[in-house]
Each structure stands twice: as structure tokens, then as C-alpha cells.
Amino acid sequence: QDYKTSEKAWWCPGCGDFGVLAALQKALVELEIEPHNVAVVAGIGCSGKIGNYINAYNIHVTHGRTMPVALGLKLANRDLTVIAAGGDGDGYAIGMSHFLHAMRRNPDITYIVMDNRIYGLTKGQTSPTSQTGFETKSTPDGNLERPVQPIQLALAAGATYVAQGFSSNQKQLVRLIKGAIQHKGFALVNTFSPCVTFNKVNTYDWFKEHLVDLDEVPDYDPHDRVAAMRFVAEHDGLVTGLIYQEPESIPFEEKLPGLGRRPLAAQDLRPDKEKLQQILAQFR
Ligand code: SF4
């Protein structure tokens, strides 16, 4: 099973999203998860097309709403491997509040953000992760705002698996996605995925020059949240690898009282008639 579909990817030649797609497909193959047990929830934007190219269940949701749909899926069927995917605009602008609440709840969902620091689908406007001073059609005199720092935000919000990849470092990205899927709880894999058409600053070469690879930092401890925050801040968020993982993470759905282990569709959810009569009697 290779997880490929017959649909030809619509992205511009050289787009970083090709690398993310290839890494996700490889991770699923290596984990030997059957396609009927995988659901991809994709947001709006160039990256949101990813679900069309993976042979699994796919829901293409409205802008910024990958998190609530992914959570609903997971609660309805815990046997599903639920993967949410989208861009920096989808996740860190309109989807920001869902993102924060998903992290503090900690459902067993993998969230892959293809971060190219620009809005590509709408032809090149400043996004939440665009750097201060970045010039686009929407900010011709340079971006006045400070960028969202997704990794620091995730660490501060209590995310239990925080990783960052680069679409051209396939080996590392496959490993990070596999780790995210295997992690019991919410897993963020923010991935630098260059937009070759509209972002002429944050190019492949720019990332290669600026990224610090944690695989080459021998004494880095991915189980120390505070140290992780300090390290990432010191390197302006430009760090790839497994940044933090909580070893004893318990997913949200396992703590919910009364939610059966089996998929909702396989459970008898009809109310107990006798109990219902007793409750109604209290209001007579
Ligand atoms: Fe990729 Fe940018 Fe083209 Fe969109 S516009 S497909 S993000 S290269």
C-alpha cells in the first residue's frame, strides 16, 4: 500500500508541499497503518489540497476548522489515525483559537502545518508567520507586525509533542511524522515548506543556511519543556527536530467519562427507558 491516489498534484513545480506529502505517505507506509483507518482533515490554502493526494479518508473543511473536525472524528472513532493538515494562514490566523484549545485538551491528533510564511493560494500576502519588514502585496512598505512563533506558542500552551521539520529534509521529516502519529496525544509538526512562487525571501537556500538541526546537537534533551523554550527562543524558532515530548501523555478521549472505547457507530446509544422515566418523573 503506497497511499498514492491517481490525482495529479496541483502545486507549482518545486513547492515544498510535495516534500510534506511524500514524507506523510512514507510515514504511513512504514507504520503499516491501513488506509481505511486513516482520516486526513485538510484546511483551506494550497496545502489544504494534500488530502486529495492521499489514499485515505479525507475531509476538506472550511477555513481554519481542521481542529474541531479532527477532534470530532477522534471522539467518534478512536481507532482512526486522525491527521489534520493545513498552512500557516489556516492554522495560525483564522484557526488560532482552535489550535490553542486543541493543545490544552490533548486529543490524539497529529497536526502538520505547512509553514511557508505567506498566503500562496491568494497570490502572496503577509501571513501570521511572515517576518517583520517582509514586503508583499498586502504590506508594500514592509510588515509592521511581529510574527507568530508556533513552536514557542505550542510549548507554552502545553502541547505534549512539538516538532519542526523542513520539507527538503525527508529523512528527519518522516521520523518526526511517525513519532507524532505514535505519540498518545496532540502532536504538532510545524514544517517549513517553501512557497517558490511568492516567497522570494524564505527560500530553500535561506532555510538551509539558517536552520539548526537538533539531530546535530548531542546534549539536547527533548523532555525538558523550559529548556526547549529557551533553546528555540535563542534560535529565533529556526530549529528542526523533536523539540519536546511529554513521556506520560494521556489523550483527552481516554479521560472522558462515559465515552466507550468502541466507535460510536458500533455502540447502542439508545437511552435506557427505565432511567429516562425516573428522570422525567422528577419534573412532574
Ligand atoms: Fe506552493 Fe506557493 Fe505554488 Fe501555493 S503558490 S502551490 S504554496 S509554490
TrEMBL record:
| Pfam families in alphabetical order | PFO_beta_C (PF12367), TPP_enzyme_C (PF02775)
Task: Name the InterPro entries on file.
Answer: 2-oxoacid:Fd_oxidoreductase, OFOB, PFO_beta_C, THDP-binding, TPP_enzyme_TPP-bd
Q: Which cofactor does it need?
A: Mg(2+); [4Fe-4S] cluster; thiamine diphosphate
Q: Does the keyword Oxidoreductase apply?
A: yes
In alphabetical order, the GO MF annotations are: iron-sulfur cluster binding; metal ion binding; oxidoreductase activity, acting on the aldehyde or oxo group of donors, iron-sulfur protein as acceptor; thiamine pyrophosphate binding
Residue ranges constituting the Pyruvate ferredoxin oxidoreductase beta subunit C-terminal domain according to the UniProt record? 195-259
The answer to whether UniProt assigns keyword Metal-binding to this entry is yes
- Domain Thiamine pyrophosphate enzyme TPP-binding per the UniProt entry, residue ranges: 44-190
* Matches recorded under Gene3D superfamilies: 3.40.50.970
Q: Mention one GO biological process in which this protein takes part, according to its record.
A: cellular respiration
Task: Give the keywords, sorted.
Answer: Iron, Iron-sulfur, Magnesium, Metal-binding, Oxidoreductase, Thiamine pyrophosphate
Task: Give the protein name, as stated in the record.
Answer: 2-oxoacid:ferredoxin oxidoreductase subunit beta
